[in-house]
Specification:
The chain is built from 15 helices and no strands. Helix 1 packs across helix 10 and helix 4 packs parallel to helix 12. The longest helix has 32 residues.
Length: 309
């Protein structure tokens, strides 16, 4: 129960950060379109730093096994999420933006600061399992959904700064390469900007909208229901059915990190993709905002269900 209260507190803080972006636009200090600059800073600078920083921990056999469990859990989640969303789309007629918003969660922007605040910095490493799997799919499957580009340029994928950051992080972790304190400190501080900056961007995107625009569309609630309750709840039962939480003494706690990641609000990166490719960025921002609001209740609920089962 204590963890649930901590979750509510942390999510509310992020929601207030979103409100700052909203006020910047409403107060005519910045234009909504100017958020594209922050989106690029997030995607190409802040996100890589957060990824590298998550691998900057002491190597041990237990951590290696735990990392393997985190990767396995994330892989199973995505293997289920993508076809489940396609199947549900036959009944609900989801658009490409809606599909991407249902499948992909705010596993980086939201979960890294949440896990650090709730479970402790030593558990942030296990967020990398979900982040790595989702980042690869984000820059292939999700990017295709949003942009409409049907072919993959694998050179661009592997040259992507986030994929490179994952490679660098893995090398640092496995070979325990010592980095200068100046570099470590800089990477850590820039990476810590991920949550606040992502929420400010979303707030700026919805700045020109009225509250009616944000809350009127019924489809928003259907998408949020799928993203925050239906899919995560299904996956909790799947993870328990496979018995992954009993693989090691720490497996249950590691998969709690996975549960937090898979039940998080829609990915802010989807909003950033929509903005970069001009594919209904306002609607993508609305989905993000409303899902963050509902996650104040749904994420603690999913966490309690996982711990009870």
């Amino acid at each position: 129960m204590e963890m649930s209260f901590l979750l509510v507190e942390q999510i509310c803080q992020l929601f207030l950060m979103m409100f700052f972006g909203f006020l910047l636009v409403k107060g005519k200090i910045l234009e909504s379109d100017q958020s594209v600059v922050l989106s690029k800073v997030l995607l190409y600078v802040v996100s890589p730093c957060a990824i590298i920083n998550s691998f900057s921990v002491e190597f041990s056999q237990d951590k290696l096994i735990g990392l393997g469990i985190a990767f396995l859990g994330a892989f199973i989640v995505q293997v289920f999420y993508i076809p489940m969303t396609s199947s549900l789309s036959r009944f609900f007629g989801f658009t490409q933006i809606e599909k991407a918003s249902i499948i992909y969660s705010n596993a980086g922007n939201l979960i890294i600061p949440l896990v650090g605040a709730i479970l402790g910095k030593e558990w942030v490493l296990y967020t990398s399992g979900y982040i790595v799997v989702q980042t690869i799919l984000m820059w292939t499957h999700a990017k295709t959904l949003v942009s409409g580009e049907r072919s993959y340029d694998f050179k661009k994928i592997f040259r992507n700064v986030n994929i490179i950051a994952i490679g660098i992080g893995l090398v640092i972790f496995f070979f325990q390469i010592p980095l200068p304190i100046m570099i470590i400190g800089s990477v850590e501080k820039v990476g810590s900007m991920m949550g606040p900056l992502a929420m400010i961007v979303v707030g700026m995107l919805i700045g020109p909208m009225s509250f009616k625009d944000i809350f009127y569309d019924k489809r928003t609630y259907i998408v949020c229901l799928m993203r925050l309750i239906i899919l995560p709840l299904t996956m909790i039962f799947v993870l328990k059915l496979f018995g992954l939480d009993h693989l090691t003494s720490e497996a249950s706690q590691i998969l709690l990190v996975t549960t937090l990641a898979m039940s998080a609000p829609t990915a802010a990166t989807i909003t950033q993709f929509a903005q970069i490719y001009n594919k209904h960025p306002g609607y993508a921002g609305v989905l993000n905002v409303v899902s963050v609001m509902f996650s104040v209740v749904t994420m603690p609920l999913m966490t309690m269900i996982y711990q009870i089962l």
